[in-house]
């Protein structure tokens, strides 16, 4: 016991020293990509309300020395809550979706939502101010995602792109398309992993606990809502990556992750654990967390709830407006990927989504019974189970040679028990 305390105290000390010295990330997404011999560019785009967002781009695959002139369809990939573009490149070129897509002939763009480690600048505001942090999922969905889509289309001279989202990346996509349906015309195909719209059956114990405190508008939720979060998540990253790299702690760390994302999954790629914890949690506003907690409490997909008074000021109504999913219209069915042991995007809640927009989607439920939330991106079998299938569907859409037998990991009937 004492040994643990000493070890932990030691790392807290190191952490403190690193925070004082700036707490900067040592490697960014481009470093992680280039380390494998792939090209990478970083781009910034400014939103109408002044946030400066970073996009990382894999313009082509590693084997091609340069663009040979054939069109490279654009893909935008959006990350989870408190995550960044790093999340998708952790498993390297053989298994990571961005690399696989680049090698298959796509122009791959990795987004970063306002407030995460790569998007903490603003034309006027300091990232230490409360005004900077006064945003929720709504602004990410209604401002950041369309700003990025338009920037990519302008830069590539394309008129449409493919969208891939994981977790929060799916929530903000559904917000955008239900509020600004015309964006459906700019989407070729959409692939939503661990889709988060309804959270009535969420099973993650830590989230259920936090929800008790932050699931309703309150003084506490208001104060926490706009508190800058950089320092705290920086400490978690340093602690996590420094402690969990020791074999003694590795299994404990994985159990803690599984407590969030789905109990007892054996599938996480353990090799990337340290790098995952070096890059995640990657910041975000506390209002994003509050809003998810509100989704759990009220079982509705709606705008941020500021409380009756605040809502009147913001929305002209004492209740926040609901996102109307009936507005969503895409040329192709949305591909939903989900798993039975996912503590966030539970099959019950996906079923509610299906009841509402069934015809608008293809419902891909992973067969493996212990597959959880993070497994949809970071498991050892993510390539054969998920990524090969996504790449193949994109190839098919583009009229390129595709395989047609690579989507084998899913049940025939998504919603029947057994
Ligand atoms: C983007 O690239 C520029 C120039 O190479 C570099 O100075 C900057 O730090 C990079 N930004 C990020 C977020 O990686
Ligand atoms: C930034 O500040 C300038 C000067 O006060 C103002 O004109 C501009 O609208 C502000 N921009 C944003 C995005 O807030
Ligand atoms: C697991 O992650 C490591 C480290 O990024 C990577 O080299 C390896 O290919 C990954 N393995 C699988 C099966 O995803
Ligand atoms: C499709 O993929 C499978 C598994 O990778 C492979 O065995 C098969 O040869 C491929 N078929 C075609 C037509 O490319």
UniProtKB/TrEMBL annotation:
InterPro entries: AB_hydrolase_fold, AB_hydrolase_lipase, Lipase_euk. Pfam families: Abhydro_lipase. GO terms for molecular function: hydrolase activity, acting on ester bonds. Keywords: Hydrolase, Lipid degradation, Lipid metabolism, Signal. Residues 1-17 form the signal peptide. GO terms for biological process: lipid catabolic process. Residues 31-92 form the Partial AB-hydrolase lipase domain. The active site is at 167 (nucleophile), 342 (charge relay system), 373 (charge relay system). PANTHER family: LYSOSOMAL ACID LIPASE-RELATED. Belongs to the AB hydrolase superfamily. Lipase family. This is Lipase.
